[in-house]
Automatic annotation (TrEMBL):
One Pfam family per UniProt: PH_14
InterPro entries recorded: PLC-beta_PH
This protein's name: PLC-beta PH domain-containing protein
Annotated Gene3D superfamilies: 2.30.29.240
Domain PLC-beta PH, residue spans: 13-140
Phylogenetic classification of the source organism: Eukaryota, Metazoa, Spiralia, Lophotrochozoa, Mollusca
Length: 168
């Protein structure tokens, strides 16, 4: 008799990641700075989502995350942006930065830097994201769960008026 196998793809998402936290976001590739973003992870651990005042929501798919790093300071050439980041906390920039490395391959990697207000928040998010992002089983879910995943992504990307953006 064959042994029954149960396919469990879900990794529990820590409550602090689902509740969310305010970070500053620095995208090194495009030199884009977003201040005071509410960053959250959905209950299934599919996406890291963030939204700042007056901007469209942004989404990073957890299955595309290759690595999470703690303690790498952003390379910010704009002195105004750097001053804004530094004035928000007395702690060192390195100790409060979580770097999310993502991409479809290991050549074209995007670095998204989450800059917390204090090192404790950065450490909690680093550990929490590390637990959920290396879940390869989440890529093999049923079609209904894939539909739910796409719906969650659309809901995270709402524009400032709360509507799902449609591009022509």
């Amino acid at each position: 008799m064959a042994k029954q196998f149960e396919f469990s793809w879900r990794i529990p998402v820590p409550e602090v990641l689902q509740t969310g936290c305010v970070f500053d976001i620095w995208d090194e590739e495009y030199s884009v700075y977003e201040s005071n973003c509410m960053v959250k992870v959905d209950e299934y651990g599919f996406f890291i989502c963030w939204k700042s005042e007056g901007r469209e929501g942004q989404v990073l798919e957890c299955s595309q995350v290759n690595d999470i790093r703690l303690g790498l300071a952003p390379k910010v050439s704009d002195t105004k942006v750097l001053a804004d980041i530094l004035e928000k906390s007395s702690h060192s920039l390195e100790s409060r930065t979580v770097t999310v490395c993502s991409g479809l391959d290991l050549v074209n990697i995007t670095y998204t830097l989450l800059i917390a207000r204090d090192p404790e928040i950065a450490k909690v998010w680093f550990e929490g994201l590390r637990k959920i992002t290396l879940n390869t089983k989440a890529n093999n879910v049923c079609p209904m769960t894939q539909l739910k995943k796409h719906w969650i992504k659309l809901c995270c990307m709402v524009n400032p008026s709360g509507k799902i953006p449609v591009r022509g």
